[in-house]
Amino acid sequence: xxxxxxxxxxxxxxxxxxxxxxxxxxxxxxxxxxxxxxxxxxxxxxxxxxxxxxxxxxxxxxxxxxxxxxxxxxxxxxxxxxxxxxxxxxxxxxxxxxxxxxxxxxxxxxxxx
Amino acid sequence: xxxxxxxxxxxxxxxxxxxxxxxxxxxxxxxxxxxxxxxxxxxxxxxxxxxxxxxxxxxxxxxxxxxxxxxxxxxxxxxxxxxxxxxxxxxxxxxxxxxxxxxxxxxxxxxxxx
Lengths: 113, 114
Hints:
Chain A is an all-beta fold.
């Protein structure tokens, strides 16, 4: 079945620095979604990308969908303590029957002040 | 306020004792889904429903049942819980009538099976 991998699993970042987390699917995706889960909270939707090569920005966050629609990245600039949490990517396979949604294992971000 | 609610939020039970976790959404969403979250494994989809009376298996459906008799409710049933079902469970809903899009998550239910 479809697998979605995220790297790194953990990201320790100095406040003010930039970092990137990556998401790779074993199958082509119809869309890619990104979520953020604060410690003790529930996942909260950040953004959805649909088109091949699409790039979207939300303030200090830049999301990209790969040309082959099998990978995605989230780049955060000038990391702040409010960025702490786990970031998940998720996507439905273009080929699988039905409408399953598969999540990656997440990247847990810790910020050093 | 648009929201997804789950009950109970915390539950400790014993092996084999049937339980139901309720989920309700007030956004008239078509798509509803259950996930379990375990350390290092991310969120894994258990079951999903595209509409009333339409349900389908996710990636980890074994040991779970669901029903969708009304659009707003999507209960998760564990007929005979086992310790390996100890987990954090999330219900979610989405407006989509086709490919699943933005998911609205409930607050979660922490289940412990002893």
